Protein 1
Amino acid sequence: MAIKLLVLDIDGTIAGDNNQIRKPVKLAIKAAQKQNIKVTLATGRMYRSALPYYEQIETKLPLIAYNGAWIQNPDTQEKEHLPIGKEIALELLDYFESPAMNSYFGVHCYLEDQLYVKEITPSTQEYAERSQVAAIPVGDLRKILQVNPTKVLAIAHKPQMIKKCFPELKTRYSREKVHLTQSSHNLLEAMHPQVNKGKAVQYLAEKVLGIKPTEVMAIGDNFNDLEMLQYAGVSIAMGSAPDEIKKVAHWVAPDVEADGVAVAINKFLEKQNY
């Protein structure tokens, strides 16, 4: 069955070290669109951070941000938003700011597409610069949690600490309470339990476009792409992806610096017949 929807992650997939979409990838995306294949992005990034990449691919579909917690059509401004409960968010703040964890993590809270932090650290500054957003320091993050945040993110100053805290948090919180995932080696993300890229792509494919999973191709590079790759009829993992992600993919592309998305599009979509 022919592919009708192509869904792309951003970081490590279409955007590499220079934080830009390389020309071969742009050309490959346009070639897919000329075959009537619709294209959109599914990212862990904030909506405002993902928007410049979305505008470059010139699509009219909704943009999937915050791993699916925020789905918005920039043209119509129609939005689906599923935030994490503030009670869980407060508990996560207590955990990461505890004496045992405080020196190893920085915490980000996202409300109304703004990034709030306790203070500006080197890790936060690096994150903000790559995301091209301003981080707003507020001291105690608890004072801004008057409403449910879209997402809570912990940046590990030592990435190996994620391997320590992940099992602890999985034991503490069932999948029915919170969805925990990694979008990078040092980023741990907490969201509403019904949020993941797979559910977001399913909504876009089946509810918005009326197509089947077998007509979807998805490309990603990390754990937060897992459910999306499992849903898609054709799933592509980037060469830099963890082995667990490569194992669920139908094919492994070269990494982002070798224009893996362009290679994958050319391999699977270039000669589709309609």
Protein 2
Amino acid sequence: MLGVQRPPCDEGVIRGRPCVAPQRRPGRALAACVLGSSIALIDGSVVNVALPTLQRELAAGLASMQWVVNAYLLLLGALVLVGGSLGDRLGQRTVFLCGIGLFTLASVVCGLAPDIGVLIGARAVQGVGAALLVPSSLAIIAAVFPEAERGKAIGTWAAAGAITTAIGPVLGGWLVDAVSWRAIFFINVPLAIVAVALARGAVPNQRSSGDANRLDWPGAVLVAVGLGTLTWALTALPNRGWQAPAVIAGLVVGASALLGFVIAEARSGAPMMPLGLFRSRDFAGANLITLLLYFALGGALFYLPFNLIRAHGYSAAAAGASLLPFPIIMGGLSRAAGSLATRFGARLALTSGPALSAVGLALMAATAFTPDYWRGLFPAVIVLGFGMTIAVAPLTTTVMGAVPTAQAGIASGINNAVARVASLLAVAALGLMFRAPGNAASTTSASATMAGFRAVAMGAAACALAAAICALLIIRNKGQTPGADTGWIQHRNTAQESE
């Protein structure tokens, strides 16, 4: 009959009336996830190149410029677990679309910001939006792609992320010079509109079989406070030092809150991070590998510009361009790496990838005193790029495949949180090596800086090698692990009933 509409739904029936669920269209769903994640990745890379212009036009100090970046990363790192849990309980499509909407609204406010205070506040809201959409995007991929195709799909997602990260600074620099710094935020709007249109028609609202209203609020508050204060303390540590009261307080409060979070999750009837997930050998092992590998990568790439600019006289643009082979390799080969891991098993990829990354980092250490790019840094970046390409897509696939589909969002959130915390720990811990006596502790001379970076790169190489050893000893050599997990069939059947 005309005028009678069947409402869209998630469960098949709403108040006794039949309803229509979105059709599963994996290609469109993947495109929506790539676009949604891209807006978060673009803003994570383009803002840095706009900071000098922002500082001049908004008459702000250096500390304010730091918070333009840190406000976003702080909220993203602190709330990414909450975003994953919300997706599992409220529906992945719902949380994904809410994240895009919040991020886009905050982007418009950033673009219209009249002063630095409004800009920093809007950047914090962008971090909240990103914490909702990033884990949901991976969970959607896990829900709509069958096991045999999931590795390739995640590889495509990772490749798109690498390409976005590579072109972000180039695009941002062009927009700042040709239009305005405000344009780097407005560019998110058309991307978000397309992502929303694709997601609404192609993504089922997959969610946990539990009560969607029973969010673990005590756990959410504790993990947000714990990761938030710990992230702030670790970010402030290089400038303020270990003895600063604020840093000590942040570390104590953060550690205490995270301990309280673990206790609360163990006692909760509906935990946002089920501790039982870590009974999966692959899930626990993959997160340990993530911690070690991203500690190595994050620390090395943070201190590398100091060596290039301070010691070897690179310009900021040249220092950024020196790493371009890295995302180009990942962008071109991540999809193939995901497919190979699915075919031959994750253990081979997760052993060889970090081991090759360790070789690349060791080459960085060996050439720390070499000013010529082609004989020095270039070979190291190439080897590191191949190593990370081999590891990243299989690592993500292992994490997502080690848990039931209904818990894919929280699995993604945990893994994202581990990666971000690893980078923050690296900046603090490897910074002690960079500033060790005889390195860059009390001088800014070129020789001291090169010695400091050599120490950092060697420490990073040791961590990457440790990741390879952990993969060899822990990860099961299976290309498709989900079927082996207890409860997978039960959760998969629950998901099928909800379509």
Protein 3
Amino acid sequence: MVAPIIPILKEIVGEENVVTGEEALEPYSHDETFGLKFFANVVVKPLNASQVSEILKLANHQKIPVTPRGAGTGVSGGALPCQGGIVLSLERMNKIKEIDLENLMVITEPGVITGELGKEVEKQGLFYPPDPASLDSCSIGGNIAECAGGPRAFKYGVTKNYVCGLEVVFPTGEISHLGGKIVKNVTGYDLISLIIGSEGTLGVVTEATLRLLPLPRCKIDLLVPFNSLTEMTKAVVKIIHQCIIPATMEFMEKKAVLACENFLQKKLPASEAEAQLFIELDGETKEELQTQYERLGEIALQFGAMDILVAEERPSQERLWEARRMLTEAITAKSPIREREDVVVPRREISDLMSELKKLEEKYGLEIISFGHLGDGNVHVNILKGEVAQEEWQERLPCLIRDLFQKVIDLGGVISGEHGIGLSKKSYLSLGLDLTQIELMKRIKQAFDPNNILNPGKIFDLSRTP
């Protein structure tokens, strides 16, 4: 199906931007999801929306699957060509087109690395808040496809809160411009919100207009250890009720801290605590932040905090956050094979969720290490294979995940807060959504993509027209 159109693809994007052959295709066969690997027939690297449009028109006419791909940092298999065909890599579309100081907007192509965009706008005294863990390697287009969040989501929100305009190429090849440099828009259905988080199944984003904020002038970080996650959660609720809204409120359970100690080969502050709360305050003046952290510290101590460690200068802030920054590497070193889930519950339910995780750990004999964003209830659950035999791992893991998701739903939560459904979670979608919702989503997909060529096999299954 694909071989006859390869000469046409070369005409569209140039011969050097069409990739074939197993060795050259291998980097595009996987993302950061463990155990998933699929080869495309060809990788195509367009430079602009017009080229994307020509590729999609061709693929739609020939009914060839197309998988959009950003930087390949996803952890749900969303950018993997599970049905072969074409991988549409947006890596060449990597320009920041405009930083608009007066309107507090930036116009960017989808291949721009999120961390690089943040640095560029900061040079102008501006601030782009979304900060996913893969900040230095993920792309803006992928962030939009997954509605990425990060530690600052509690105060500042997630990607969808900053997208004001999109240029989108739809599966049938039409190019459409949605929104613009505007912060209010109720002109018809909110198609921008429909595209955000759709995991590349409804359209290909070729340009984004993103809202910016003035860059906060000051920042103070705190590390607050507790011997009870329940009391930590109560303290956080009280802090928020006192109108103190930190930029970040991250937590690590004791096992996570000890994994970092082992990885870094050094003693970390308060590693004997059952849980650690990492807080970042930002604002206009240090005096304002000092008032906040003094009040915050009083509340934390009322709920049994063991100590309040304060870092006001960059070197001490780097040391305070060292364990949290190195956590993913530390867990990977402990168990290279692991499953990562990103469930969300109401923040008052986090301590109940952690109790349930201990029960699941005992039931299935698989170690679980958790950390996450306490402010918004997003818990990253790492299930470690460790020394468990492969056959037992494959048998126990799906049952554990299903039990985990059911517990999350029973607590009023959802099965994914940041990573998306993609391939890895689609068999569990019916746990989180009722049949009416799923059928409505399928009808939306069919309206946008009648031949089901764009990222087929993700989120749910639909048959492609032969």
Protein 4
Amino acid sequence: MRAQFDLPAGMTYLNTCSHAPMLRCALAAGQAVLARSGTPWSGPDAEWTAGVERVRMLAAQWFGGDVDGLAFVPSAAYGIATAARNLPLARGDAVLVLDGQFPSNLLAWQQRCEETGARIVVARREPGQDWTGAVLATLERNADIRIAALPQAHWHDGAMLDMDRSAPHVRARGAALVLDLSQSLGVIAANPVGWQPDFIVSVGYKWMLGVTGMSLLWAAPHWRNHGTPIEHHWSARDARTVWQFDPQTPPEYQAGARRFDAGGVIELQRLKMFEAALLQLQEWGTSMVLDHLQATTDALDAALDDVGLSSWNTAQHAPHFTGLRPPPDRFASVAVALRDANIICTARHGVLRIAPHLHVGPADMQRLAEVLVRAVS
């Protein structure tokens, strides 16, 4: 499958958590649009509209097929800001986040707390505790939590939060649930029916294999019927009424979460590239992608064990990526050794983030372990 990605020979690319390697089919789709971009008269509006809904339907497969629940937004941060605008929050309330949570699912809540007099509550792991246990314990200690803003896999090292266990506890306390699945969607499907979140966001350019500037926002039925978008533009409105220009009566929104579609995001090049990526994921199949990546990280776990470096690995990490923690005094030299071996990964805050995709297999993981052990020998 490596040949389906636009990668140079000899490179072991393990940085999907930052940006997925480009699929050749997506690259070709984008180049085709660019080649005819000078002829805007050649693409009728009806073709563009049909393409938008076709891509929405493909993306909805990762949300239990809920097409009406999906909107296209430029970033996960935009989706979180939409959630923060709509969910009620008042003085004395609290918003739950994980320790070290990615800024896209933190900054908007900090702003809302500053505006309302609410506060941020941080779930921190005790020694030997996983994120699920930390979240449940924090919920138990803080009855004022009104919003839980959480990821499924921690961006820093792949440590997992069990949504099947956590979501019911959030709901039992009457709190809203907002999920950032940017580090899991595309490998692990969302379960909006089981989790009952208010909003879900995900970028499209990591595990979804799409492009920057095209992200997904899922909204629960209440919000897709009563929510207020951040911006107001014609393409999120009902085409039958939007051009009537009645200064007293605004036009109706499009059906479902389409009211949250961001202006200018759904342009043809992004749309075609994202469609190509989603079609490729569909062809591979969800279970195949998950199984392959699980086998790859299992191979890494075994290889680290063989060379005596299993203590570096993140416990209970995601099936598709993990984080390795070399001794602090060797971190810089290990990172240099990987770069010299043309092994590309994120090295940040003492963690080497190992995030393969289908272009990587068990043999690459064995080579990675060998480079690591040589670097500290």
